[in-house]
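so ive been stuck on this for like two days lol. basically i have the seq below and the ligand is glutathione, smiles is in there too. i just want the complex predicted, nothing fancy, no docking runs or whatever. if the output looks off dont worry ill sanity check it later, just need somthing to start from for the group meeting slides
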Amino acid sequence: MTPPLRVYRVPHSTNVERVALAAALKGVTVEWVDVDPADRSELVRVSGQPLAPVLIAGTGATAEVVCDSPQILCWLEQHYPQPPLLPADPAARAEVEIFCDWFNRVWKLPPNAIAAELGKDAPDLTAIAGWSAGMRRTLDLFEALLTGRDFLFGALSLADITAFPFLKYPVLGLSAGDDERFHRILVEHMPLGDGYPGLRAWVARLDALPRA
Ligand SMILES: N[C@@H](CCC(=O)N[C@@H](CS)C(=O)NCC(=O)O)C(=O)O
């Protein structure tokens, strides 16, 4: 019997949505454990850190605990290889892996920096304007990647799953009940105007996919 797969989540979480998308595409049933964002004690108890998502595979002393959404996506890909979310061709696979790494370690920094700055008593508006301009510039990169193709690297992959929960904000706006500063920043600092048809169509395509 397949051991139960539990995933701890908080509401409106971008990183949780990555896991929900990948699990649904792979037909994996997830037992969601809802965590109150104001009380992370259960997350800390099960994983030693306060951030969601956390995946727990199995039960008891042999249970595997995986933190950090990129690690969880990797775990799902290894344990549930079908359908693959990484290309079989090594060069194409490396391109997707490099994109995901860039997205997680570089692209995410400006919106996080803006959120931290806005939390200060006297935010540095010049610094915010610089980070904001950097975010807007990346919109052109995503639009270019989507030229003549439906997904960022051709076929649906971890690149799309990794980026969509963040890039959906300027297209879809905030969902009901979502008042997170970080999400508002994603809406406000990536204005699309009348442009970015490829990005808009891609967001609609991804949003139509199931969630576990
Ligand atoms: N690198 C982690 C980041 C996880 C993370 O930041 N999770 C957010 C929800 S999307 C969270 O729990 N934030 C804690 C907080 O807002 O207090 C991942 O990709 O899973």
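The mean pLDDT is 97. Residues 10, 13-15, 37, 51-53, 68-70 surround glutathione (CB under 6 Å).
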